Give the backbone structure.
Amino acid sequence: MRTGYVPGVYDMFHIGHLNILRNARLHCDRLIAGVVSDEMAERAKGRRPVVPLVERLEIVRAVRHVDEVVVETAPDKIEMWWQLRFDVIIKGDDWRGTPKGDALERAMSSVGVEVAYLPYTAHTSSSLLRRVLDDLPSTRVAHRA
């Protein structure tokens, strides 16, 4: 049985998230989704997700293509591999050919894990949605503290 791992923040769940989870399943028999913790997301992106971790976990858990959902608390994907022992890690193709993608490929190949890239949905992203929300008048949007 081939196990796939698809990490992500999955903030403000949108069609890009659904696409990557749906298409990730084509690369494996069993799919584990790693939902990045609020703290790790803040370190990586400079801000906390809009949707709290417990809700993001529940949303991703409800997607039929996902067999298991875990909280990703380790920035090092090798650490996650030691915990989960997946055969393929799936990332958006915006990682391909970048320093972070190259580093991921080197690290994963050291333990025999394939890196599969799937098309990134460029027209919709949580960062883009967040920018739109930030541009709305503050009276229309309630911001979390």
About this structure: The helical segments are 15-24, 38-45, 53-61, 77-84, 99-109, 126-135. The longest helix spans residues 99-109. The chain has six helices and five strands. The chain has one domain: 3-135.
